[in-house]
Specification:
The protein has two domains: 59 residues; 168 residues, MetI-like (MetI-like fold). The protein is built from 14 helices and no strands. Helix 4 packs across helix 13. The radius of gyration is 24 Å and the shape is flat.
């Protein structure tokens, strides 16, 4: 019996060691790619063309000056991207959470068909409706406007699906009934009670939504034609044109500036995810 227990303990240690090695390897690989990008932002074009290096160089300010000397303003693009991404993220997580709450907390006749319809919409790629969407925005005179890039974020089927599954596992209807007995309105109950309970799921989807909207190039490239409305992904893509195709240092500098807000958003919201995991670990 003791040999069996000893053998089981050894197997568990081996399995745990293998898991640690795999996780550490994936973490190092993920960090390495970003490190190479930031290192290349400090190197000149000849240095980048000469080969790979993990040691920063001394050309960061010169690359930044080259980037600022282009025919567009990167800081303006940074601001435009932030306005679009933050607004679209807020719309996505709030209205998706509200929709998911309506699907879970209320028992209405067409609830299941409505959820099935949401799943069907989730299967349609956004590129399939791009032409019709552009024609519709053109008729509304909403081209070169941020609204077509923000308002459609209200309808996010994948986020609704995630929020619904989270509520099914965590929401106790006794809390909702107690709030109703105390005279709380439906929107007040959702905003003051349900939404804080959903904060781990909201933080998770907020990270994904912000990253997706920040890196979005397809729709802004179609809708935005004025230079003062360009987002950072559009500006970085223009750096690869015929005129500036040899300025690899400025390209990597633009990519580095584009990636920095994503790190900030992740570190700001990750504590809510960790708190939610810890809360779920002690939940009865």
């Amino acid at each position: 019996m003791a040999k069996v227990q000893r053998s089981s303990t050894v197997n568990q240690k081996i399995s745990r060691t293998i898991i640690y090695i795999v996780c550490i390897s994936l973490a190092v690989l993920s960090i390495l790619l970003f490190w190479i990008m930031f290192v290349n932002a400090t190197r000149s074009t000849p240095e980048i063309q000469s080969g790979l290096s993990l040691i920063p160089s001394t050309h960061m300010m010169s690359n930044l000056r080259v980037l600022l000397d282009k025919s567009f303003d990167p800081w303006k693009g940074f601001l435009n991207s932030f306005i679009i991404s933050s607004s679209a993220t807020i719309c996505t997580v709030y209205f998706s959470s509200l929709t998911a709450y309506g699907l879970v907390a209320y028992n209405w006749k067409l609830r299941q068909p409505f959820f099935t319809f949401i799943l069907c919409v989730m299967m349609i790629p956004s590129q399939a409706s791009a032409i019709g969407f552009y024609q519709f925005m053109y008729k509304l005179h909403w081209t070169n406007n941020f609204l077509p890039l923000i308002l459609p974020a209200i309808a996010a089927p994948a986020v609704v699906f995630f929020m619904r599954q989270y509520l099914l596992a965590t929401l106790s209807m006794e809390i909702v009934e107690a709030a109703r007995v105390d005279g709380s309105g439906e929107f007040s109950t959702f905003n003051r009670i349900i939404l804080p309970l959903m904060m781990p799921a909201v933080a998770t989807q907020a990270i994904f939504a912000f990253v997706a909207n920040w890196n979005n190039l397809f729709m802004p490239l179609i809708l935005l034609t004025q230079k003062d409305k360009y987002t950072m992904p559009i500006m970085v893509s223009l750096l690869r044109g015929d005129i500036y195709k040899t300025e690899f240092g400025s390209i990597y500098m633009g990519l580095a500036l584009t990636a920095l807000p994503l790190f900030v958003v992740y570190f700001l919201l990750s504590r809510y995810i960790i708190a939610g995991v810890a809360l779920g670990g002690v939940k009865e």
